[in-house]
Amino acid sequence: MSDIRMEDLSRFYTLPDGKRVAALKGCSLSIRDGSFTVIVGKSGCGKTTLLRLLAGLERPDEGTLDFGGSRPRTGVMFQTPRLLPWLTVEDNVCIWRHGMGGSAELAGQYLKAFGLDSFRKAYPDQLSGGIAQRAALVRTLSCQPRLLLMDEPFAALDYFTREKLQDELMAQYVRQPMTIVFITHDLDEAVRLGQDILVMHKGCCGGRVTNEEPYPRPSVAGRMALKTDILHILEEEKETPL
Asked: What tens digit of pLDDT does each residue of 47-96 get?
């Protein structure tokens, strides 16, 4: 897989009253192959639209989205687990059996590594939010994606569960290199996880902050300078006329 490149990418939506609004407008940026890229920005800045374009769930109205060849094998994880309620944890994790392709060996390894071995035969309504989201992560990883897209996957979890899943995601990233694009509103999460942190503003990339700290990263470290850089970019938005 090559770097992902976007040039003058735009995506428009038409509201019920006929008004046309731009979720992305002339967005140009690149995502390095094999990087852990985190996207931050205020609500409505185009983060989720960008992720949906990367996933192939939508098409751009203008501009180009170049994967350097064919679209890589892609896994998508959302803010809610979206487990199928009539399937057990094990069957949800192995949903790829129905045509998506995956690895039974990896699925078994992930179930053990992520502490889900004892929940194999449990159904989604028997799980806590953290366990359900952990199952959703294992389901996505067992499909062996080359590109992993994550839309605020830990936002609804408590502090301790969120940190645990961050630890597990970083460990998996070290074991199985892939390109990860991760959306979050949480700056602490952004600077802990991200190598490249992209700051979105009004449908464009307003700036980029780099964190070269090696993995795994502790929950508390000297990252205040990185947060300050991101906040500075966000503060500059206030000075930009509408």
From this structure: 999 999 999 999 999 999 999 888 898 999 988 899 999 999 999 988 87
Strand 74-77 and strand 62-66: the pairing is unpaired
Q: Which residues fall within 8 angstroms of residue 36, CB to CB, at 6 or more apart? A: 173, 180, 182, 193, 194, 195, 196
Q: Show Cβ contacts of residue 133 under 8 Å, excluding neighbours closer than 6 positions.
A: 81, 153, 154, 156, 157, 161, 165
Residue 99: per-residue pLDDT = 63
Which tokens go with 134? 């952990």
Instruction: Return the closest-CA partner of residue 123 out of 113, 115, 131.
Output: 131
pTM of the model: 0.90
> What letter would DSSP give residue 215?
S
State yes or no: pLDDT of 136 exceeds 60. Answer: yes
Burial bucket for residue 205 (CB in 10 Å: 0-12, 13-18, 19+):
buried
DSSP run (H or E) holding 47: helix 47-55
In the chain, the amino acid numbered 120 is: R
Q: Give the distance, in angstroms, between the CA of residue 149 and the centroid of all CA atoms in the same chain.
A: 4
Whether 199 contacts 168, CB under 8 Å: no
